Amino acid sequence: MVPEAETQDVLDELQRLRARVPLLTGALAASTDGLVVAHDTPGVEAEGVAALTAAALGVSIRMTDATGRGGFRELLIRGGSGYIATYAAGSSAVLTLLAEDRINVGRLHLEGRRAGARIGELVDSAQDRADRAAPPPRPQQSRALPRRPTPPDPT
Question: What is the C-alpha separation between 68 and 91, in angstroms, rounded?
Answer without folding.
Answer: 19
